[in-house]
Amino acid sequence: MGCLAADFLAALGLFTRLPLQWLEKHAAGVDLRRSVRVWPLTGGLIGALTACAMWLGYAVHLPPAVSAICAVMMQLLVTGGLHEDGLADSADGMVGGRTVERRLEIMRDSRIGSYGTLALCSVVALRCACIASLPVSCLFPSLILAGSLSRAAILLELKWGKPARQDGLASALFPLSSRPFAAALLTTLLLAVLLIPANEIITSFAAALLTTTLTHRFSIKKIGGFTGDILGAEAVLAELAVLVTLTSFNG
Question: Is there a contact between 57 and 36 (Cβ–Cβ < 8 Å)?
Fold first, then answer.
C-alpha cells in the first residue's frame, strides 16, 4: 500500500500542481521508474477533472464553447501546462534550429518563439473545439481515455527511444523497466474496455500510436532522441489525436 501511495505521489507530483501533503504520510520511498505503472491512471484522473469542469459549465447553462475553454483552462491550472510547454519548446527547437546543438539549445530556452506559439495556440484551440463537440454522455469516457493514452504515449517513447541528452528528467527515466511498463499499458487497455465501444478503442489506440510514432521518428531525425520536451509534446499530440478520433464518432 505504501508503494502504491508513493507511486501516485510521484506521478501526481510530476504531472500536476495538486497539493499532495495528505498523500505523503501514507507513502513509502518514491521510485520514479516504478511509478510509471500509475501514469495512465494519473492521466485519466486529469481527464476526469477536465470533464467535471465541462459538466459544471453545462450545469450552469454556459454555451459549449465557453464551457470547453473554462475546462481546458482548469486543466492547464491543474497540470501547470507542463506538456504544453514541452510542445512549444519542441516546435521552436526542431523547426527553428539548423543543427542538433542549436535545436537542443533553443529547446532549453525558457522564452517562446513563433513556431511554439503557433503550435500551442493550434493545439489548445483544437482541444477546446473537440471537447465542446462531445455530447455530455461522452465527456467522462472520452477525456479519461484521452488523458490515459497521452501518458501511455510517453512510456512508448521511453521504451522505443533514447535520450538526446545525458542529463535531465527524461534520461533519469531511461531505460524503462518492463514490469511497470506492461502494467501501465494493461491499465490503459482496461480503462478503454470499460469506457468506450470496441470500434472506438481500436481507432483511438491507432491514432495515439500513429501520432507517437511520427513524433518519435521526427525527433530522432532532428535531435537524435528524446528530451523531456519531446515527451510532453507526444503527450499533448496523443491526447489530441484521441479527442479528434472520439469526436468523429460522437460529435
Answer: no
